Amino acid sequence: MLSDDTLADLAELIKTWGRELGFQQVGITDTHLEAHEAHLNTWLDKGYHGEMGFMDKHGTKRTRPAELEPGTQRVISVRMDYLPAEVESTKVLGQPRRAYVSRYALGRDYHKLMRKRLAQLAKQIEHKVGAFGYRAFVDSAPVMERALAQKAGLGWFGKNAMLLNPKAGSLFFLGELYTDLPLPVDAPFEEEHCGSCNACRTACPTGAIVDDKVVDSRKCISYLTIELHGAIPVEYRRAMGNRIYGCDDCQLVCPFTRFTRATQEDDFAPRHDLDRASLVRLFTWGEEEFLAKTAGSPIRRIGYERWLRNIAVGLGNAPWSEAVEAALWARRAFPSELVREHVAWALEEQRFKRETRIATAAS
């Protein structure tokens, strides 16, 4: 048994060690998530999770940490900023011949890096107090990471349902260390700073933010390009623009994003020029090249077929050019029906633009 004073000192050490390990913020909370559980159940009942069956799969293990990891009394919540230096997000969005990849996915997969750091943090705690019960999570199990982070004082829920921090916006990853240590908890972040601002709702290309702090995933471009396995609904394809993996619009327009500092983690730096590559170039990748260049990347999880599906939509939205049309024709007979369907749509979009261009020139 550890005394209250020892636990209080340990909590402060944990925060110091966390910052030394590269986490920008560390907070501690209890496991009571009743209000968040009710909100989640309402969201699920409305079907806003779409094909993300994992959101409903584990029952109350997601909202009751001690059911997922028996003995859990506290959750150590950590934040790690990921915005790479010298990345011009909005500039790429304004260049429709280039591919836009969500900023978090430009470098190496964050899961292993953060889990390793959390394991190191646990070892430091163990060295200080002896063996204790713990389990580390980084978006890898049914965990209410944003709710726990809010309760641990890391930020508040914005109108786009993202966790916002007044000094970092929302361009960060979250991780958790479930523990049986009865550490003192931090005050939750109760004050919300969004006020009358609706920039995120206004900027959402598909109107996926259907209410305050409520996102209908079925309309969200991040869901459509990453989680959806089948065809992208036609009504959302033009709105996708050149976004081929994820979407950051609601984050980029947030006034608090201007306070985001560039990450110091080399693993988050863009690889293979993914922050500026052209749609045509990426569409020419063969499957072996795709697998090689997405090794250790979050992008790998969507697979080659959906990679081509997404880029085909981007090419359909690009300004007409012979290069774009030729790239699409080269995939017209691709073995996957899913890819062929999106290529056919893109070719029709390009045909319309070409004919419009000719008609305009003739007049």
Question: Your description of this structure?
Answer:
This protein has 363 residues and is α+β, with helices and mostly antiparallel strands. It is 42% helix and 11% strand. The mean pLDDT is 96. It has 2 domains: 4-85 and 107-179, NADH Oxidase (3-Layer(aba) Sandwich), CATH 3.40.109; 199-355, no CATH class.
Category by helix and strand content: alpha+beta
Strand order of the largest sheet: 1-2-7-4
Q: What is the overall silhouette?
A: elongated
Query: What is the element string, with H for helices and E for strands?
Result: HEHHHEHEHEHEEEHEEHHEHHHHHH
Average pLDDT, rounded to a whole number, is 96
Largest sheet: 4 strands, antiparallel
Total helices: the number is: 16
From the N-terminal CA to the C-terminal CA, the straight-line distance is 86 Å
Measured by DSSP, the beta-strand proportion falls in 5-15%
Q: Any low-confidence stretches, pLDDT <50, length ≥5? A: none
Number of self-contained structural domains: 2
List the quaternary state of the chains. single chain
| CA radius of gyration | 22 Å
